[in-house]
Structure formats: structure tokens, C-alpha cells
Amino acid sequence: MSPVSAPLRLSLDGDALVANWRALDAMSGSASCGAAVKADGYGLGAAEVTQRLAEAGCRDFFVASWNEALALRERELPSLTVLHGVRAEDMPLALAGFARPALSSVAQVRRWREAGGGACDVMVDTGMNRLGISIDDVTSGLLDGLTIDTLMSHLACADEDVPMNARQRDAFAGLRGRTGARRMSLANSAGIALGADYHFDLTRPGIALYGGIQCAAHAAQIRQVVFPQAQILQRRRVKVGETVGYNATWTAAEDTEVAILNIGYADGYLRCFSGKGGAHSGDRRLPVLGRVSMDLLAVGVDDAAELAEGDWIGLDYALPETAARSGLSQYELLTGLGQRFDRVWI
């Protein structure tokens, strides 16, 4: 039996994805530009994202876990790094050699060395206090004898103009030549915009690839990639004084045309959009009315007389504006989109 199409979908702009990578690649100057594809390609589908970016020329890809790496194994990517390193239970898969661990603790370094592991990456903590061995670990010789492809660190505040950025950059730069690493990598999406001193040999953009805009330097070049859409399940007329949705939080000030859409907080369109979110049909904005339910959403369609049951409506989802309206980060807006969407590349 053929699968039934879903009543909600993500329209994904492959040309915009590639254009965003090329823009970030150009901004990276002489450094190579990779791509973070963790969290299933930030919710878009890692297999499809890596295919398009590899065809565009991207050679370095980054996932969080070995399960994510395994899902991409058949892609035979030129370079694939597992950012969370390698647990004891990951070792059989890690030693297969199709991806490199980014070793991030003393225990991981010892585990890799004792197992006779080959090329690896290493994460160094330069002040974020998340993952990474210390600078003292590096300078004391912990990494001696390892075959290190990429020495990396991560900026804590790249999207802000704060002194911590320069402190992290300088601390990382001080490790140049201390490990035998083939490359060094520090900058994420926002870090690329901080300038050439942050680029080192390899940049690792994530959110900007998928349409996220964190700084002014990205605003003119980064294009929206993800466009959520949902079908109308029912169109109804709500009379003046009647209410819509749970807890009756919206009351019709006049007779109102309402469309009920097949999307809700189980799909990542969260309750914070209640009374704040919007949809659109062409250039007409359609306001969200009342509470967002688990699977359903009401929007006003007074200005769209032609819309009927079965028609598709786009949800307003430009990442910077939607983040400001909802209180969610641009990362949450993307990675929270659920698995009930059909993902359709255009």
C-alpha cells in the first residue's frame, strides 16, 4: 500500500540552502567551510542536506552522535566528525573508520589511544565550559602521539560583541603548532562574521545554513530555507460573541471566517504562538486565533474568501521575526519541527 501524504509539510528550498553555504564559504575567506548537520540537519533531514551541500562543494560535515553518523554512513562523505566524541559503547562503530570522533575529555583521549584508534579530531575548551579538554591538558602532552586531523574549540558568545570572543580566539591561537593537528577550527555561523582572525583553517556553520540570521553581516545574504504549510481541515463561520479553542481565550468581536489547520504543538508549532502567530495566503496575513492545540490551529480567513477545505496555507516562519514574536530561539524553531511533516524539497 502506498504511503498516504501528510496534511502538513515543510517546503524546503534547496537552492537557498546551497546559496547560504556558498555565502558563508565566501565569508570564510581562505578557510574551508564545513556544515553542521546534527539534529537531522537541524530538522530538515540530514541525508538530503548533505547530498545538496556535498554536490555544491562542501567537504566537512559535523554530527552530534554516532547514531547520527551511522545514518549518513552510506553517503560516504569526504569528512564526517562526531562532535560528542566517543563513549566506550561507541568504540566498535568508531573504529570502523567512516567518521572521526572529536575527543573531548581525558578519558576519551585515553580510550582512543588504548584502542589504537586512527585519525581523530579534538575539542579544546577555551572558556565555554561545555565540552573539551583544557588548554593545560594540551600543553602537558596529553595529545602526544595522536593523529589529529582538526583541533577545534567553540565560541560561547559569537552573536554578541563581547570581549570573551577575543579571549577565546587568542587562547585557541596560542595552541597553533602544539599538537601536530592538520587544521584548526573555531568559528560557527556567527563566528564567521567576526572576521578573518576567527576563521583559522575551517569554519563550521550551522544555523545560518538553514536560514537563521544572528548578525547584521548575515542579513543581506542568508535566505529562508524552511516554509511550513498545513491543509485546511474545515472552514467555519464563528458568530459574534462566540469563542474559539481551549479555555475560550479568543472571542469574536464580529462574525468571523475561521479555518482549522492540521498542525499544533505536537508538530513543533508551540502554544507560545497562541494569539501571536500568523499564517498567510499569498500576500494576505491570517492571524492565529485562540490557543494552539496539540494537532489543530485556528486562523482567521476573512480576507481569503477563496480558501476552502483541502487548501494549503503557509505559516509565517521567517526565523528572526518568528523568534522575536514567540520567545523561542531560531534553533528551537527549526529543530522542534516534528516528524509528521512531509519534507518536500523544491
Name the features.
8-stranded mixed sheet, about 350 residues, single chain, 19 strands, elongated, alpha/beta
Summarize the structure.
The protein is of the alpha/beta class and 346 residues long. α1 (14-27) crosses α3.
Q: How would a textbook summarize the main sheet?
A: 8 strands, mixed
SS element count, helices: 12
Question: On the 0-100 scale, what is the average pLDDT?
Answer: 96
Q: Nearest-angstrom radius of gyration?
A: 23 Å
* Spatial shape: elongated
Number of strands: 19
What is the percentage of strand-forming residues? 15-25%
Q: Indicate the structural class.
A: alpha/beta
Distance between the termini: 26 Å
Textual characterization of the structure:
With 346 residues, this protein is of the alpha/beta class. The protein contains twelve helices and 19 strands. The radius of gyration is 23 Å and the shape is elongated. The model has no long low-confidence stretch (mean pLDDT 96).
List the topology elements.
Blueprint: E1 8-12, H1 14-27, E2 32-33, E3 35-36, H2 38-42, H3 46-56, E4 60-63, H4 66-71, E5 79-82, H5 91-94, E6 100-103, H6 106-114, E7 120-123, H7 135-139, E8 148-152, H8 163-173, E9 183-185, H9 189-192, E10 202-203, H10 216-219, E11 226-238, E12 243-244, E13 250-251, E14 256-261, E15 278-281, E16 284-287, E17 297-300, E18 312-315, H11 319-326, H12 330-335, E19 342-345
Parallel strand pairs: 1-19, 2-10, 3-4, 4-5, 5-6, 6-7, 7-8, 8-9
Antiparallel strand pairs: 1-11, 11-14, 11-18, 12-13, 14-17, 15-16, 15-18
Helix pairs in contact: 1-3
